[in-house]
Write a structure and sequence with these properties.
The protein is α/β, with parallel strands linked by helices. About 40% of the residues lie in helices and about 25% in strands. Helix 9 (about 350-360) packs across helix 10.
Amino acid sequence: MANISSPRGIDRPLNILVVDDDDLFLDYITWELETLNCSVTGVPDAAQALALLDIQLFDMFITDWQMPGMDGIALVQRVRSLHSQDRFLHVVMTTARGDSETVRAALEAGVDDFLFKPLDRLQLELAMASARRNVMLHHRLQRRNHHLAAAHTRTRNAYRRVQGDLDAAAALHRRLLPEWEMADGLRVAWAYRPAQHISGDTIGVLPLRNCGRLFFLADVQGHGVPAALASFHIHHRLAQLAPDSPAAMARAIVDLNREIASQNSESYATLICGLLFPHSREGWIIRAGHPPPLLLQPGRIKAMAVPGAFPLGWFDDAEFEPSHFVLPPQARLVLYSDGVTECCDRDGSALELEGLCDLLAMAADEPIATIVRSVEAKLSARRGRAGFEDDISLLALEIIEGVETGDGD
């Protein structure tokens, strides 16, 4: 009879360990297996089989059921307990007993297939074809697992590199944030909580040569790296232009708007930008698509009447007009992103402007830093473990009473 062909992909000899205390049967099955392209090692007892399995890899293990000392069932159980977790081994049992209890006991011990005595050539070929197929599938699975492990390692390393870049970008963004207390009569406090690893918001308070302060809060559409890069550009350009008069501030924002609009992308940003001169308490504000600033005074909170213009990047020919204001004694100026007023609680209800005013009122008599921290803590409590859906930015300014400042001329 012609041999049943091996499954495609297994051309090398199968490495087989055979255990049988019958020398004649051991010689016979060894010869038959070698004619089926197998490399066979035969031993007469379980002890020698266990010793070989500890030092050598086999594709297949054939053991007799009845042997002196440790029988086939006990041997298979021992082999499976020692090696089943770290190597593949196709186990076949030879037996003259074909009753259901015998077969069930062998299967429970870990036997994969049976050869019944007296051994039939066709039966052996069928058993070997099944064994080759299992070995081939195991080797294929090993290769795939190796490729998956390598791909996982590459992905993990790439993720670590990206995470490192994001950490560096986040640290750079935070270095742009202003000092909490500045010289020359101005006190500053802020809250800054990105929805993702890095923020599309940016906050700036910059000293000017004429003793004024340029302050701004920008909110770029979207989240993540693109928004963070755009907000970094806005911060850098405003710091570079450093407008020190209302007219210069208007020109700077017109230029910035044209730069964003010329990028031919759907990106845009809302911005509130202002000048404040602590010595005179005078200031000017431009609001480009941003929520109105709040004036926090003893016993009252109100939104300042600052006309709004289009967000930066919508129209390249947009104009921006500064609005004049005076910051009264004991008053605090509060700027915020829409991530604050749109912050939802667990039921999906947004804070809105009225809710923000209530939060500010709860700590209105406290120092400015306490007010900001209180609002930030209550926003975090609204979200719980869910985290923020949008970037959170809030900037509060106040003039320090009794501090001498320059004349601003």
